[in-house]
Write a structure and sequence with these properties.
The chain is an alpha+beta fold. The protein has one domain. It is 19% helix and 40% strand. The strands form 3 sheets. Strands 1-10-5-4-3 form a 5-stranded antiparallel β-sheet, with helices on one face. A hairpin with a 2-residue loop joins strand 3 and strand 4. The N and C termini lie far apart (78 Å).
């Protein structure tokens, strides 16, 4: 009986060590990261933006959103908490507001498109307007 307990104890220790070693790797949406790299942050920081003007919310990673409004206007949003599953290929964002605006501290839900189940949620941060990076004339 003692040998079974020892083996069980060893297995439990190995499982605990394996769970510590297998921390999830945060995925990065390379296309969104490349798009974000085309811009600089401005001093124009907003608490809310009209939800009617939002064309897309694209996760760069699980902590950063690229928000496209209008035709070619972009904001970056540094989420207040990590948004598990935000960069998943088959996931989408959902949110409910009491106004026609998406605001800081509103909650985004990450929903799996195939099964319709919730994979994560996170708090919206401030919206920082982006401006195209200046072209370096010396490089031309």
């Amino acid at each position: 009986m003692k040998s079974i307990l020892i083996i069980g104890g060893l297995m439990g220790g190995l499982l605990a060590a394996a769970s510590c070693a297998s921390t999830p790797v945060e995925r990065v949406n390379e296309a969104a990261a490349a798009k974000l790299a085309e811009f600089d942050r401005t001093d124009d920081v907003r608490s809310c933006i009209s939800s009617r003007t939002i064309n897309s919310l694209t996760a760069v990673d699980e902590s950063t959103l690229l928000v496209r409004v209008g035709v070619n206007e972009y904001y970056v949003n540094d989420l207040t908490s990590r948004c598990n599953g935000a960069t998943g290929n088959s996931n989408r964002f959902e949110y409910t507001t009491s106004t026609s605006q998406l605001c800081r501290n509103d909650i985004l839900r990450v929903v799996d498109n195939t099964g319709g189940f919730l994979t994560g949620s996170c708090g919206v941060g401030s919206f920082v307007k982006l401006a195209p990076k200046a072209v370096d004339e010396a490089a031309q």
